[in-house]
User: Fold these one by one.
Assistant:
Number 1:
Amino acid sequence: MDQLNAWFTQLLAGNAIFTANTLGFYWNGLVTTVQLVFLCLLLGIVLAVPLAIGRGSKRWWIKWPIYAYTYVFRGTPLLIQLYLVYYGVVFFNGIQDTIFWEVFKDAFYPALMAFTLNTAAYTTEIFRGAIKNTAKGEIEAARAYGMSKGLMMRRIILPSAFRRALPAYGNEVIFMLHASAVASVVTIMDLTGAAYYVYARFYAPFPAFIFVALIYLCLTFSIMFVFRRLEKRLLAHLRPRGA
Amino acid sequence: MIDLQGYGPRLLEGALVTVELAVLSLILAVVLGLLTASAKLSRNRLIHGIGTLYTTLVRGVPDLVLMMLLFYGGQIGINMLTDQLYYAFDIDIFINVDAFVAGVITIGLIFGAYMGETFRGAFQSVEEGQMEAARAYGMSPLLAFRRVRFPLMMRHALPGIGNNWMVLLKTTALVSIIGLTDMVRVAAEATKATHEPFLFMLPVAGIYLLIASLSEWGFAKLSKRYSTGFGEASEWTN
């Protein structure tokens, strides 16, 4: 450990900007960004699955509200949604006196809420498309086995739809990682927030932002790698034989 | 009627800035995209490599980070350049980076990479037989490109261009963070002053939806036009 520490100090010697202190900022930013993105994606999927099923319903009073929700959230910038949730909460009369203030006084939760609503809208449409493209034969086979609608959804349609949605969902994950950079505008110290702090403190835009760009690049490539592997495993049955 | 507390005219001015910014960056992005597509389709390995590096880097980094890098770094970079010019050649100039120009260049650069991918795929989908036919008619390379390859390519590229345009439109909101007075910035300022977020943010969201719906309609029309001779314009209508 001492050796590592010495090596690290040597590496940072003669470097005014990337001190242990600022690297700590970047590290905390990385943790915040990953937490924010991971949580909103997880919550987004939980919301999107029932919404995607409902979006294909024959009843207009289920179908149309979901369509309106995805249309509005996909048609407006995430920044506006973030401002709406953040200021909507902060400027809500009397919220400071309620128990909710404990949760919402930290900008993390309003941001998480806005991101979740945003990604859920995109994910709903991705799942919706995948469900719609289920092969007729699979549904006929399930019916021939006498499966009920719920069982068919659970055992046949959803598993095959999730596989087909995988490439598009991978893009959505990367999109969300990049979109999360706007969290820095509502006082959250995510990766971009940390980079901005370092820029403002040292007035050194190139090191501050290029360094953070490289971190984002690494994250993007890792996500792409994971999804490639997943696709290879889960979509193996769709590849030509002998390949 | 909604009372915008005197912010109405400024919101409209901001909306105009948003539209101008989006249209100008779209033009830049299309030009850059065509160049990138040709670079990526080039047989020259160096040019191909540069094209790939550009699209990979830009698509791997958040728009906001690139925007901050180019906007905050741009002024310092240009100052360093003009300083060098002064020392070396005794030329004394000062270039001030305008937030609007920086915004157009940044968004154009970002979406040039996405457009490049769209155009590359579209160029590859044009049947070679069509170009052979054009050559057999004795068309010059330029004429063959203008009359045959480009219109055929556009049919495949339009859905992608439409998607990119929708994303680009929403990305323009980010310029409000680096100090450009578009409608999002006006709304944010008004919100902070009056503590009424919904009063200002909802109309702005409505304008974005309006522009998005109008362009969806416009792209459907264009798609029909470029699909002449290919039956239904089914690609765009989903």
Note: Chain A touches chain B at residues 71-72, 75-81, 83-84, 87-88, 91, 177-182, 184-185, 192, 195-196, 199, 205-206, 209-210, 212-213, 216-217, 220-221 (CB under 8 Å).
Number 2:
Amino acid sequence: MAKISVDGIEYEVDPDNNLLQECLSQGLDLPYFCWHPCMGSVGACRQCAVKQYRNAEDKNGTIVMACMTPASDGSIISIKDHQATDFRSHVIESLMISHPHDCPVCEEGGECHLQDMTQMSGHNYRRYDFKKVTHRNQNLGPFIGHEMNRCIACYRCVRFYNDYAGGEDLAALGSHHHVYFGRHEEGTLENEFSGNLAEVCPTGVFTDKTFSAHYTRKWDLQTAPSVCAGCGVGCNTAPGERYGTVRRVVNRYHHDINGYFICDRGRFGYDANSSDQRIEVARFRHGQESQFNTLSALEAKRQLNAMIGGDVIGIGSPRASLESNIALRDRVGVQNFYAGFSDGQFNCLQEVTKSLRETGLVCPSIRDIEQSDCILLVDEDITNTSARLALAVRQASRSAATELAKEARIPLWQDAAVRELAQNTRSPLIILSPQGTRLDDVASELHLLRLTEQLHLLQAIAHVIDPQANDLDDYSEANSSLANNIAEQLCRAQRPCLVSGISAESPALVKACTNIGKALRAHHSKNAESPRPIGLCFAMPEANSMGLALLLESGGKSLGAALQRLAQGNVDAAIVMENDLSLRVSAVALEEALAGQTPLLVLDQQHNSFNAKAQLLLPTASVFEQHGTWVNYEGRAQSSYQVFRPSEGILPAYEYLSITDPVQQCLVSSELIIQELARSDSRFNSLTDLRPPRTGISASMKSPRQSHRYSGRTAMYAQAHVHEAQQEQDRASSLAFSMEGVMLQKDASLMASPWAPAWNSNQAISKFQEEVNGELKQGSKGVLLCSRQSNASPYERFDIDSEQKLACFAIAHLFGSDEISAQAPAIQARCVGPYVCMGQSLANALGIRQHGLVQLETATVRVQLPVIIRSKIAQNCIGIYCANEVDKYALLNGKVALQAVSEHESHIASSRAMFDLLLIKDALRGEA
Amino acid sequence: MLRLIKDTLGSQCVTLWRVFMHAFAKTDTVEYPDVQPQMAARWRGRIILSRDPDGEERCVACNLCAVACPVDCIALQKAEDEEGRWYPEFFRINFSRCIMCGFCEEACPTNAIQLTPDFEMAEYVRQDMVWEKEDLLINGTGKYHDYNFYRIAGKKIAGKDKGEARNEDAPVNLRSLLP
């Protein structure tokens, strides 16, 4: 700790940081633009000027940039010094010379860092008489709007997009006062994190295009803390609602998980909530009739209760909240509760939960991954399944740069200097994958291997690290040198980390990764002086995959078993909750099960081919419309709060399924379901701390969902009825559907959109952090549900399938693989149809040319799909992207026969247009 | 004694006389509604939405009037035409809540929302006090004749390209190396 004096007041600060960061950490107001807590300082904007004095006797001092000056012990600075304030007001005046005077028609207005800083620096009138520089805008695709005139050239966008997120298609173009931030030509921004530009940009150059389409000022949005349901990372989000629809989703700071950034699926997938595929009313059909009757919510509930009698099975869902799954399990009984996973995932998750309880290993949070110094990424294409993990892995590759900078005694916030020093030095990131990934540019090694080859290699690595891991002696020569090399890097690392996933649906893969973790543990317990954290994590495809898996530990069978029972027809009814079973099993298996004529009760959010077959279809609330609990890949349970009440008739699944006591209506609240679970199941004990207590003063003083500037209360719905309705009551949480109330103790887990006096933009978050980029001052970070066992378990044994002539693997895409977000129009614009990818040699053997058609045939299915031939793909291997249309399990589990199909040129052209959207860099050009 | 008479009786006579003289004074009340009162132009009465000198809607749906409104009686939704011009998809004032404070007019950056001297807004049905954009929009510039927000702001709209707003240079040619 160092002591610095700011305007005569002493503060205890961290000498490793710069003055700007420390001033902000102390809650002082100092204007800035180019500095960002995650990206360090470059000193580009000159806005954070302060006066620094050499010693107590020095009365003149010198003006320095706070962001470029270390907060060294004994520093004496002044923010209020009149020369410093003068300097800052002149800097902002210069920055504003070409500003286009369009705040009223700017999406950033009202939450603009530039507005805030202009106010803070005291600039009012443009005194400059000459002409303003203007720029033409670019169309940057369905996500991001561009208005270049508003730019103040702080360079944050390119520093985030290129340096932090690894994008390649945004650049600072031009020179001097003509500098321009955009693409080399118009077109969609390629990076998966492009949406963050809207938050990173301190002004309105980059804005959220989907938000602009139904724009509402920040102060008019009703927001509640939420959790992204796009994948299993569990990023914290703040969705905003107005007039009954979700208007946008922005990042909500969580120290251990998403930090300041979320991926584009999470940010732009919200529009699915008001898509035309949404189920809005309950409907019922008698027997085999094709006609549906619509039901009111009450009738629907009655109908449901009437149909649940006798032997009823329930199929849960990894995309439904923990509460809904519990309610379903309690309704049908543990013996009748079945997992909503595909059987492959079910088997994988059993292994994953075991590994999460393994002593000596840690499941790294996103922040832990960022700090890891050696990562082995196995099989999972995390950019497309858990994108935020991929961003963290990208940061981890800079650990080597961090080490170099520490040796050279360069402070880490000196961003440009650290990058200059490190050049292309990266810490080891070893990728084993059947095809090239978006992380290849930061990978130290990329090994294109089929799953079976990966398993052999993983076994060999485990064997090298600890010979007791397996009795392996027949691995090939090539594997042995590779395994030695990878094992050596893993052993040398201070914070090694293994990242894999369950997309391959291979329990052997999970076991193989766990074995390496155990081998490292054994190796270090023998050799190392101090225990090293050995990270092992598995990306989860859905928001509550882990929650459901943990729930199933205490009973519950696989989906296959459920379908078997259905096929036998000895079940009175089946309840399927928020689950499209056609995406979990092959069409044939599903058909066989449904042929049993068991009445099918489906609860879901969106219409799909499966729930069209339901006898009773009930509309359920989305993540924005219910209080829910979600367990992420680490086993961290987090609460999401209802942002707004959905239209009448749409209820959370748990409200349909819980048996309501007519006297105690409140039995169905999510809070009570969670409390009951925490009480009855010791593994979930810690859930009692998940939500803030609602006793004493906090019971009556709720936190508002609306800002204190929320407008239009007496006019919003006046066209329907001029008498204002009573404010909606929320009896189930500590939040109120109101602008009244107090942010109790500024509890961060209840604070959706940060605001502080003079700080209207999202940068106000620093006022709620212990220190900049640190923990939030108060509030729950979620609770970790998986406690480690006390003793180590032995190595896992598994068999590796014999090599097939042709291996198939499933491809996932960030836009399209998630069934809910794929309904959002902006995401749809980035989605592609099903396709097959293969290598050149295979294509030559089959006589297929680039973008031509191939026919895939198994015993049960025959499809024709366009082909992309790429150079980065394992030998004798094809990847299939099913786009939730093609029968994935029939293709992946069956024996696929390939055959070229003759096609028209027009086919090729249309497939080419589709593949252009995919941005696969290593796709081969020209004819095969 | 005389003094007492002067102080009491005299004073009462003067008062009576003055009251009597009021019978001949000029009347201040007007025979409303037969006679219409003369309202000052700056009177804060019925709210209108005006058009710019080119005849386009002035309102750009920036929401500043709504947020300035102390009784929250203004609600609107932004929409945007293909050329980038913002306008309100709907614009609603609940006059049964409006207190005619004029904050909305002060907040308006485009001079779109203005208060007029018209105060005759009584209704039998309260629902009729809810006015939509079609009711509020007039075919003129109101009190401010020349102001056109889009001629000053640097946003491109139909008929005004980049670089054509006040004080703007033609758009930069990024391919040029000239200083």
Note: The two ends of chain B are 102 Å apart (CA to CA).
Number 3:
Amino acid sequence: MSETIKVPTMAEYMAQGKQPEVLFWVGCAGSFDDRAKKITKAFVKLLNNAGVEFAVLGTEESCTGDPAKRAGNEFLFQMQAMMNIQVLNGYEIKKIVTACPHCFNTLKNEYPDLGGNYQVLHHTQFLKILLEEGRLKVEGGKFKGKRITYHDPCYLGRANGEYEAPRDLLKKLEAELIEMKRCKSKGLCCGAGGAQMFKEAEPGDKEIFIERTEEALQTKPETIVAGCPFCNTMITDGVKFKEKQDEINVLDIAEMIANAENL
Amino acid sequence: MQYIPNILFLIALVAGIGYFIKNCKKIYRNIKLGKEIGEIDNKSLRMNNVIRIALGQSKMTVRPIAGLLHIIVYVGFIIINIEVLEIIIDGLFGTHRIFAGMGSLYNVLIASFEILALLVLVSVILFWIRRNIIKIRRFWKPEMKGWPKNDANYILYFEMLLMSLFLIMNAADQQLQLLGAEHYIKAGYFPVSSWLLPLFDNFSETTLIIIERSAWWLHILGILIFLNYLYFSKHLHILLAFPNVYYGKITPKGKLPNLQSVTNEVQLMMDPNADPFAAPPEGQETPEKFGASDVTDLTRVQLLNAYTCTECGRCTDNCPANLTGKKLSPRKIMMATRDRLEEIGKNIDKNGTFKPDDKQLLDDYISREELWACTTCNACVEACPVSIDPLSIIMDMRLYLVMEQSAAPQELNIAMTNIENNGAPWPYNQMDRLNWKNED
């Protein structure tokens, strides 16, 4: 196990007069949420391992504004967006990768009109490219033949039409992917989107994350895979609610690949 | 005297089509109460969508049974309209089966109309069974009580009646042809209505003529009544699906529009050379209102969406909030928007211009609880077979609640304050954003 990870910042690159290949947009969850931080680190290990010259903004990064916009606060969203765009354009960023589909959607779709034009990739898309370029090696390892199911994040799937990149990576892991009944364009939300993550749900007869977790459990998986830190949190909670946390892992695809490679 | 039927027919036709046009104009006027949309881009992609989604019904078959039945009714509806053309010409000029001159092609046409009519009849009966006997869940949600439920059934009864009349008319006509009755030229091939012939075995020519003429008249009058029923029903989608798909969203579903008025403000705030006391530049008006509290704050496309909705409930059936018992139902958002728009339309009909009625879409039609239950997951948008976007209305109403009323739920206010103060929805310092790097 390699212990040290290399996480250069844009400021450091700038000081050396260099430009990284890609900016890794960590996002708020990836920076602060204990569970999501593990995903961040797993992805960084993969980047280090593949020899990708990347940088993070570090303390210069700020919320993309997605939850504010979806909560109805357009003003706060645009304030965040324009501040971020100033930083990104200041560093002449061309290409961004992020492990959060909400950041991905906002950076890709809502920043261009405000002057922020970048090539934006979800980390599963980026990893797939690394794989195709032969820079990243993905083999079955410990997931070979294991039953897994994949939960489509709304903001990667329906919102942006990316269903295949994560599945292609899972195929490489040689795991047995059992699809849920509601998958791909019909995938059921985990319940966190649209700023729901930050508030209690309205009264109803069930929590959305429990409905989704139950559906995932019906596939009798050993691992439930997600591609979004918020989905990960929601389904992890669901698995705990169902008292299955000792039998079933909830993992991000980056973690699985890092795991399989013993990184 | 011999022209009386022709004159009566002309009157019925003009009245039927005239009243329909009058109501179409009302729909047009009401939609124009919405905000103008900018220039329409990417027309070829939009036309492509119309052909694929509206004409080609590509999203209907996501549910194979309902999709197949719907395509039968849809194809039947379009093809049988060729027969209506013949009926109109016959009615106006006192001819009988004017297209019979086409010979064997006519036989093929009549035969295909008959087969389609039977298929439509069967499909419509199956639709009725799905709704009323099997009680498919999406047809029994709270918003479907009363008129919406009856409306759906009336449409099915109408279609059953029209198809039956068509087949009875053909059967009687066929029997008259066999009897060699005057005026009933031998024409057409009747693979379905032939089976009805035994019913008419012992009928006299006069009785048969009465049956044939009654079925003919009831059929065409039924069509004219049905045409005019559209305006009052959920069934406008047969016409509006086409423009609605054309104007539907073509950007990625996750993209929400950025408000230009806000952009102007923020740019001004971030401009170090801006004079904070300067008067706004000429021609730049302050926006009346952020977001939507009533239907007139919505765009024309959103209002067209509301008229197009046929209340199939696929959106609601896929809504995670609705599936878990929350009040939110995307279909109800569309129904409420139309109800409120029609209320405003009637107000204008009555008073000439809109007379304030102390009501609005927010609270009187759509509650805050519904709006805050949405996860913005786009399942409703994906599910709609005719490109309706209920999410855009929910988002515009949230915008109003937050930007105009500061009425977000308390927990969201906390998250937004955090974003404002420290650049994350949680209360962590922005300076700690890279701490993960050195943690175990």
Note: Chain A has eleven helices and eight strands.
Number 4:
Amino acid sequence: MSDKKLCAAFAIAGAFATAVALAETAKAANDQEKCFGVSLKGKNDCAAGPGTSCAGTSKTNYQGDAWKYVPKGTCTSIVTPKGKGSLEPISH
Amino acid sequence: MTTSADVDQSAFVRALLDPELPPPNGVEASHGFAPERRFAIYRNNVCVGLVDALAERFPICLQLVGDEFFRAMAQCYVRERLPRTPMLFEYGDAFATFVSDFEPARALPYLPDVARLEYAVGQAYHAADAAPLPLELIRALPLDRLESATAVLHPSTHVVASAYPIVSIWRRHMSDDEMTPVELEHSEEALVTRPELAINVSTLPCGGSAFVDVLRNGRTFGEAMNAATAVAADFKLTDCLRELILTGAFVALSVAQ
């Protein structure tokens, strides 16, 4: 292996090791849960029942079958004008 | 409205796109209605339907230029380019290029790249499912041989490199937060993935999209790094790998024996 190639191999190995460690930390801090009934219209993260297909398609504010990612453990403590957030789809 | 089977399809398409033309030969209307009026309704429905499809596919572009401007621009696109396949999610593939040549939109030089990003988001949404490589398995790889390793990227992985801060613009318009100005004088490279159900849009360090493109072609991490440093001499490999790992862009990594 040439010096240059050896150097690149070291750089990639080091970067990978650091990147994995950073990703683990970020992942732990970022754990999210799907929260139903808390997103404003058009701001849902995905799948809002019949007639809609995905992200940004919910038709009303706090639509009960549309969900949004929120930090883990916070969903059911979110209070909207239509009631609290839920981990399951809700019918308002 | 009935059409006889021998209606020439290209004549039909011409009449569909040009309101000045009479209905194609063989088009008749039942109940004695004038075929011209019936066909005009059909022509309008086709156009409005496709403009609506573009508005759904490029919602941030619509926000950037406003409803009226967007619809007028989209109508021009529809007249220039009807869908090439029956799959509507592929419609708009040439929209970004069209926008970059669209004279009235010149005042917003970032608009074509925002359209590219939005198209990538749509493609990522409809891409095949695949399970991202778990962190434990990445950690277990033999570090000293990664230089010659290759990767299989998640089918939803897309990159868009821009001279403008397209990810900041996109995010600012997607969030509920109060709008704050975006500093236009910097470039951004966007990474789009959909590891599970939710679309993820993040930024890669400069050179990152070249890095991803080389990996996508089945080349090694060493080759990908060469391509990235050719774009940016100070390519931040660690940041790039961290972003790719975190967004689930790797489905498999294989180390040469």
Note: The radius of gyration of chain A is 21 Å.
